[in-house]
């Protein structure tokens, strides 16, 4: 009989109370009764402010000394998932499930040494296999790994999704189930759009784009990893029995009852708030390329991520996150430029494999926003995405208007 491994990842809200953890245990039992060997990946308990949440741990040290070395910071941050893992393993034990907890390093997750945002190099699955073969459920602390020489690392925001995907690929799991507080991937963030619709099936590509554009429900890196080995991902709710969203490459007509992916022009809308638009006027038209090079080299050297770059006749426009805007401006001034800034903007992205084939989507976008009196500060498009930049105070109204105009609900 072949082994059937199922990775089940539970987010921070799923393990935040005893009642919720009982629901997690029920999902694990259900997998066992279906004949799976579950590997359970867990995030830190709760959200900012909760005692063991990642943000709370960060504050613990940064309140004392804001320049704490990243290596030590990673050790501190990794504790959140060790605590939640211990609590969850105990919950499973008390439900009669033989469970064992492993840290990321113990589970064989090997990363580079980019502390705070480490990348998984490979997963050595032997230790997990040994435990599974002894009939144990393996609980793995998400969001963390270990370098070749034993340093503890963390994987950056949403890193538990990435842990789950990497483990799923390394163990050749039948599926990677991402359990969270919503019933699947929706056409927009349900916190903003009340009638956002759950998507039955989405392609790895579409969800990867949506995630890169700010749809927080899953980390884009996790999708990329699962896609490499074509392992199906399912986004499900810990608290209900809804079928959730299947992320796959297979043709939708094979999946009974699903919308045809090909019929969809736009899969969903994502948003990213807290951006600053920077405008640098170009005095020297002759050397525009040189000017652009100078600006973006300056940003890169300071590790500032830039986005939404647009080189226009008189100026160069781009966005950075609000929190690094001051730094970006001082670099530009040092380079001899006089930048203009517009803080508190938001980027809205419409994502869908069919956008390129349908004329008039951009026209609908412009119409929807102008009807609401919302100014478009910048826009761009590719064969899968249309982006607009608006003021943050307009973000929710803009997402709602676009969702309505494009009939995604
Ligand atoms: P977890 O802690 O389980 O990883 P996250 O907060 O990372 O949970 O992700 C779930 C949240 O993602 C939801 O509560 C929802 O508000 C948000 N979200 C943003 N965009 C979407 C979307 N397109 N579909 C579903 N949820 C979304
Ligand atoms: Mg998450």
TrEMBL record:
Enzyme class: transferase
Gene3D superfamilies, sorted: Acetylglutamate kinase-like (3.40.1160.10), VC0802-like (3.30.2130.10)
Keyword Kinase: yes
Annotated ranges, domain ACT: 350-409
Record key words, sorted: Amino-acid biosynthesis, ATP-binding, Diaminopimelate biosynthesis, Kinase, Lysine biosynthesis, Nucleotide-binding, Transferase
Gene Ontology molecular function: any one: ATP binding
PROSITE patterns, per database record: ACT, ASPARTOKINASE
Pathway membership, UniProt: Amino-acid biosynthesis; L-lysine biosynthesis via DAP pathway; (S)-tetrahydrodipicolinate from L-aspartate: step 1/4; Amino-acid biosynthesis; L-threonine biosynthesis; L-threonine from L-aspartate: step 1/5; Amino-acid biosynthesis; L-methionine biosynthesis via de novo pathway; L-homoserine from L-aspartate: step 1/3
Family: Belongs to the aspartokinase family.
Protein name in the entry: Aspartokinase
């Amino acid at each position: 009989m072949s082994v059937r491994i199922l990775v089940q990842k539970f987010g921070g809200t799923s393990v935040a109370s005893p009642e919720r953890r009982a629901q997690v245990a029920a999902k694990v039992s259900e997998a066992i009764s279906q004949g799976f060997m579950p590997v359970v990946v867990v995030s830190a308990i709760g959200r900012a402010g909760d005692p063991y949440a990642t943000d709370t741990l960060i504050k613990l040290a940064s309140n004392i000394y804001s320049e704490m070395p990243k290596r030590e910071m990673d050790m501190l941050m990794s504790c959140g998932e060790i605590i939640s893992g211990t609590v969850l393993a105990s919950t499973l034990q008390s439900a009669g499930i033989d469970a064992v907890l492993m840290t990321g390093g113990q589970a064989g997750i090997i990363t580079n040494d980019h502390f705070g945002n480490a990348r998984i190099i490979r997963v050595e699955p032997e230790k997990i296999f040994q435990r599974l073969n002894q009939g144990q459920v393996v609980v793995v602390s998400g969001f963390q790994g270990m370098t070749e020489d034993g340093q503890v690392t963390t994987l950056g925001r949403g890193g538990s999704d990435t842990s789950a995907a990497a483990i799923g690929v390394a163990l050749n799991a039948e599926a990677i189930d991402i359990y969270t507080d919503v019933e699947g991937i929706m056409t927009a963030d349900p916190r903003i759009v009340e009638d956002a619709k759950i998507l039955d099936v989405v392609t790895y590509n579409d969800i990867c784009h949506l995630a890169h554009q700010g749809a927080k429900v899953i980390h884009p890196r996790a999708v990329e990893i699962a896609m490499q080995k074509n392992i199906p991902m399912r986004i499900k709710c810990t608290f209900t029995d809804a079928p959730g969203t299947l992320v796959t490459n297979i043709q939708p007509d094979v999946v009974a009852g699903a919308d045809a992916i090909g019929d969809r022009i736009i899969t969903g809308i994502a948003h990213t708030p807290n951006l600053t638009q920077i405008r640098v006027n170009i005095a020297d038209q002759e050397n525009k390329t040189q000017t652009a090079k100078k600006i973006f080299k300056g940003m890169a050297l300071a590790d500032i991520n830039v986005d939404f770059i647009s080189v226009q006749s008189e100026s160069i426009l781009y966005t950075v996150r609000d929190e690094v805007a001051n730094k970006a401006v001082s670099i530009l001034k040092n380079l001899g430029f006089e930048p203009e800034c517009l803080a508190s903007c938001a980027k809205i992205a419409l994502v869908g494999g069919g956008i390129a084939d349908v004329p008039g989507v951009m026209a609908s976008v412009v119409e929807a926003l102008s009807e609401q009196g919302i100014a478009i500060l910048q826009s761009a498009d590719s064969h899968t995405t249309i982006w607009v930049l608006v003021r943050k105070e307009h973000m929710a109204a803009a997402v709602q208007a676009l969702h309505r105009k494009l009939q995604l609900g």
